[in-house]
Design goal:
Blueprint lengths: L2 E5 L5 H9 L15 H11 L6 E7 L2 E12 L4 E8 L9 H17 L3 E7 L3 H10 L2 E12 L2 E11 H13 L6 E3 L8 E6 L10 H15 L4 E5 L5 H12 L4 E6 L7 H8 L3 E5 L4 H14 L4 E3 L7 H21 L5 E6 L3 H13 L4 E6 L6 H16 L12 E2 L12 H14 L8 H14 L6 E6 L3 H4 L3 H6 L2
Parallel strand pairs: 4-5, 9-17, 10-11, 10-13, 11-12, 14-15, 14-17, 15-16
Antiparallel strand pairs: 1-2, 2-3, 3-4, 5-7, 6-7, 8-9
Helix pairs in contact: 3-4, 6-7, 6-10, 7-8, 10-11, 11-12, 13-14
Length: 486
């Protein structure tokens, strides 16, 4: 469902009359009933263009379903009163009122720029109170015999929400995490000290590096007022799973372009189906054309689509791991250690690019080693370099050269998604000894590559950090094969 709100127009008068005169809707409303067309038209004409109110229509997939708005907009005291009525019965109980209310609240705080929204509700109106509390309104008090309903004076609660409280709640319950757990591993190899940073524990759809990137992308989606998402990736893509999940949670349509050459049923593809994203399959040679066609069609249908490159590629994705590098430095300071090496799975390149840029900005001497899970050099290393230099250009820093990129392609095997017996053994060892699941496509392959790289280059007596960049659902795709290896 695409839930949107738009300003009330004259064409909406008949719907308003129908909804307000419906006894299933007007129990707690305070209108002079029944509403009539001429009076409602006069109301519309008299209120059109007023700055102290905002009257809007809730639409679902372009169909008008209810009323929502702000009354008594007081710029001096920076506050306004909220109201909502969902008029069509078949759209009730589907989360539409919540999604529409969130859009209105953000419009009030970000466009009108008021500080507080308040509302009044009869104490018997329990269903409305549940909605208000889910959105983040807090009960501020009881107003005794506050309003007359028919022949009776009734009590009402007053609810309110302030801008800072709303955004603090949104961060804490949806997107906020201070860091992710970093643990010492039991791995014994060349007398090195091994640590793992558990980005897979980020509390969004099994976490991972794609969750960090998605957080920033969806902030940009809100900033640009986009109303649907287009991206691409394989059926094993952690990125597509995360984007599909967050889009579903926000009520945004999500379209995923997926190459048929890498199409298979995985835990990630099943979850994407659960989130009701539309998967559009095409040959890998037709991906670019299919993306452009999909975006154009959505625009023709009246949407404002937001395109995210596969894997969260781009400066926004790079920024996510510039931020992560700061977390790593903070951990080092807290624990009094220094990581000589940071290893991780390198795919589309922005994770490695972000770590490299973080290293440059913080002037440290840590070796950033990206273990490729798919691409070969020179292309793979160049992609990382391009991401690094794109980010550095935006912040007006000097470019790097390819010699400064440690993109290791020795452990790609036959390409993306391919693994061997040694990778399965590595996954089993880490799970049994440390209780941490890795997968054959990303983290297990990179962890095995890290061990082989350390042996090959005779790295000894160092502090080594491995970043678990996620992929836990994929662990279960190969569980039977792991069992058979026992």
């Amino acid at each position: 469902m695409n839930v949107s709100i738009r300003r009330f127009e004259q064409k909406d008068i008949q719907n308003k009359i129908k909804w307000i005169n419906d006894n299933s809707n007007n129990k707690y409303l305070h209108y002079d009933l029944p509403l009539e067309y001429d009076k409602t038209l006069n109301w519309f004409i008299n209120n059109k263009g007023r700055k102290d109110r905002f009257d809007a229509i809730i639409e679902v997939d372009g169909v008008p379903v209810g009323l929502i708005g702000l009354l008594s907009i007081d710029k001096k005291n920076s506050k306004a009163e909220y109201y909502i009525t969902l008029g069509e019965d078949k759209y009730k109980g589907k989360g539409i009122a919540k999604l529409a209310s969130i859009k209105l609240i953000k419009y009030a705080f970000e466009e009108i720029r008021i500080n507080k929204i308040y509302l009044f509700t009869e104490i018997e109106n329990k269903s409305a109170q549940r909605l208000f509390e889910k959105i983040g309104f807090r009960k501020e008090g009881l107003l005794k015999e506050d309003i007359k309903n028919g022949n009776e004076h009734v009590d009402r609660y007053v609810y309110g929400i302030c801008k800072d409280d709303y955004y603090a709640k949104e961060q804490i319950h949806i997107y906020h995490f201070n860091s992710t757990e970093t643990l010492r591993l039991k791995l014994n190899l060349n007398n090195n000290n091994f640590y793992i940073k558990r980005d897979d524990l980020i509390p969004i759809s099994f976490g991972g590096n794609k969750a960090r990137k998605a957080i920033l992308f969806f902030k940009d989606i809100e900033r640009t007022n986009s109303d649907c998402v287009v991206t691409y990736g394989s059926s094993s893509s952690n990125h597509c799973r995360i984007i599909a999940n967050i889009a579903a949670s926000k009520g945004l349509p999500c379209y995923i372009i997926s190459p048929t050459e890498t199409n298979k049923i995985t835990a990630n593809s099943k979850m994407i189906k659960l989130f009701r994203s539309k998967v559009i399959k095409c040959s890998v040679t037709e991906v670019k054309e299919t993306i452009n066609k999909t975006v154009k069609e959505l625009k023709r249908e009246g949407y404002k689509p937001y395109f995210i490159q596969g894997g969260g590629h781009g400066d926004i994705g790079t920024q996510a791991y510039v931020n992560t590098y700061k977390e790593i430095i903070d951990y080092e300071k807290t624990k009094g250690i220094h990581f000589d090496y940071i290893f991780h799975a390198s795919g589309t390149g922005t994770t490695q690019a972000g770590l490299i840029c973080g290293k440059l900005l913080n002037r440290t001497n840590t070796n950033i080693i990206g273990i490729s899970v798919a691409r070969k050099n020179p292309y793979g290393g160049q992609v990382v370099l391009d991401s690094v230099n794109s980010y550095l250009k935006n912040i007006k820093k000097d470019k790097l050269s390819i010699e400064e990129i440690n993109f290791i392609d020795d452990y790609v095997l036959k390409g993306y998604g391919h693994y061997n017996k040694e990778i399965l053994e590595t996954i089993k060892e880490v799970l049994i000894k440390d209780g941490i699941p890795l997968d054959t496509t990303y983290t297990g392959k990179a962890f095995w590559g890290m061990k082989e790289y350390i042996k090959k280059n005779q790295i000894k007596g160092k502090n080594i950090l491995f970043i678990h960049t996620g992929g836990t659902p994929l662990f279960f795709d190969d569980l039977e094969e792991l069992i058979n290896e026992i």
